[in-house]
Specification:
The chain has 313 residues and is an alpha/beta fold. Among the domains are: 31 residues; 101 residues, no CATH class; 27 residues; 49 residues. The chain contains nine helices and seven strands, in the order αβββββββαααααααα. Strands 1-4-3-2-6-5-7 form a seven-stranded mixed β-sheet, with no helix packed on it. The protein is elongated. The termini are far apart.
Length: 313
Amino acid sequence: MKITREVKVAILVLSGIALFIYLFTFLRGEELFSDSESYYTEFDYNALSMSSPVTVKGNKIGKIEDIDYVFETGKTRVYFSVDPKLKFSKNSMIRLYQTGLMGGNGLSIIDTGDGDIAKPGDFIASEVKPGLVTTLEKDFSKVSSNLDNTLLSADTLVTNLNALVVDESNEGLKQTIAELNSTLKSFKGLSNSIQNVIKQNNEKIASVLENFDKTSENLSALSSELKDAGLSTTIEGLNKTLVSMQSLLSSIEGGEGTIGKLLKDDALYNNLEGASKEMELLLLDIKLHPARYRRILSKKEIPYQPPTEDQKN
């Protein structure tokens, strides 16, 4: 069968139209033949285009299907489709992020793993991640002020150095270098002296370190011996004894017991003092009149005569 010229022209035109439609949809980031599943989310503003990618951990798994402005809420509603093999939670987060320094944004699915699996047509919550350029724009004023302070400090430092080096001639510079060289030589001499002292007393230093090591070992052995000797038990017993003594002293101070009454009861003290005086007079009377007590069984009563002051003395 012979194909006429008209048929060839019609096939060529239809092929061109189909190729044009395919290229147009490809440039828009769309696919003509796709079994992807669609979802939607909302943002406060629109920063996406129809060619913006939808990714999971940096891998492209979908595309933007449509972008609409919702007049009732004032939000931008974004419809996107993903590969049907992808299963993610309905509680996941759609993150708007910046894809590069030169601009361009994309959507990333942050799967939380909680809740039921999202179904086509479900609403997924969204968030916006600040980009590098946006962050630099916000912080540029701070960076600029810090840079100004740094430049001002550097200028002040150079000014102070210029004021310090008064003589800018070659002779002044040579003198400064010579003084610096002399200072370095002094430090070198001091370092050599310290090294010589260490070399000369190397054995003494080693002996001191060895003695210190032995002393630490002896202290450790003494600590072990004290521990084995039950020092903690002795200290505990001493502590209990001190507590008992403190309780006893508190009782005496409060007038409890015989000793406490002797120390705190004035009447008992007065009685003891009177009895002591009576006993003293009795002993003195026995000493002065012994015959009276030898005749104590006789019927004749010998009257008591108190001693005189001379006899008392």
